[in-house]
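dumping this here so i dont lose it again. seq + smiles for pyridoxal-5'-phosphate
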Amino acid sequence: MPVSPTDAFATRAIHAGQQPDQRTGAMAVPIYQTSTFAMDEVGVMKAGFDYSRAGNPTRTALQIALASLEGGRHAHAFASGMAAIDCLLRTLLRPGDHVILPADGYGGTYRMIDQFGVPWGISCTTVALDDLAAVRAAITPRTRLIWCETPTNPLLGVSDIAALAEIAHTAGAQLAVDNTFASPYLQTPLSLGADVVMHSTTKYLGGHSDVIGGALVTSDEELAEAFTDFVTTVGSGAAPFDAWLTLRGVKTLALRMERHCDNAERIAELLVGLPKVARVYYPGLPDDPGHAVAAKQMRRFGGMVSFTVVGGEEEAVKVCSRTRLFTLAESLGGVESLIEHPHLMTHASVADSVTAVPPDLIRLSVGLEDADDLAADLADALS
Ligand SMILES: *Cc1c(COP(=O)(O)O)cnc(C)c1O
């Protein structure tokens, strides 16, 4: 029996797209590690698959699950989050079009438009998306897309998805939301009016730091068809094994996100009380500037916490090498806790751009270890 859209999130995460194999009863979706598919006769496919660049049953299973979790009609799974962004930009934008980007957002998105979009005639403006008047002021007659990320990477800024959707639609533009930091468990942008949701499934959806992947989810038939044509032509869809690993992660997303949120709340509260910490960025803190909007549109506040330290860049770099359980590494959203210095690591390539981040900032991806152990580790590193 297929899963119903009215089933709860945790149920859909385990069953959507994941029925036991019809022929063998295999409980886990098989890894269809094949490039091509035998046909019954010329032009007649057995199950809608002819060549794995265009489509593969393991990828399809993941896509059904992702569409269900985001409450969208169509999902496309990609070889990376950046491949998903590339597909969206190249199917939606034409020379002369204008894009609004978050001033504080994933550096790779800015770099893609700056390095690869601008030479093809795309223009962009970066705006702090929590300032709705500034967003309205940045709209031009050629604005085709507002790209939103909330909470942002790495400053955990929160913007109002429903308000941005209205601004975009009034201007005849579309709203895309990078939902990587929240995951669909905490926030479903399509239900708030967004046209497309993008994920780096490398992060919370995969959840185990063992696979790179991306996704686009939409209920817009025209966009979905354009994404299908793009993936079929370019070949940037998720490979079978990568899709399988991601699907395996998706099954436990609800459980994992609850624990990520529990642990992050505990760590944010700890940091607020430490004398070496200058400022804590976490939308779950009642006095955080993004708290009210986050409380309105998110189920909980997520597993990412950023903070600045007293003593500037030098001290921030030292703290990053003093932790025992928080591993010094880029990326986020896995079971293990990570610590990093955005200015010199994840955001180094945008250090001289408008999306530069404070040099004394540290970003934590709070994992699923015991909360007492994590708190003790940070307290030691900041003592
Ligand atoms: C990691 C990340 C991306 C890029 O995804 P990849 O899977 O690394 O290609 C995009 N947006 C956000 C917010 C990310 O954290």
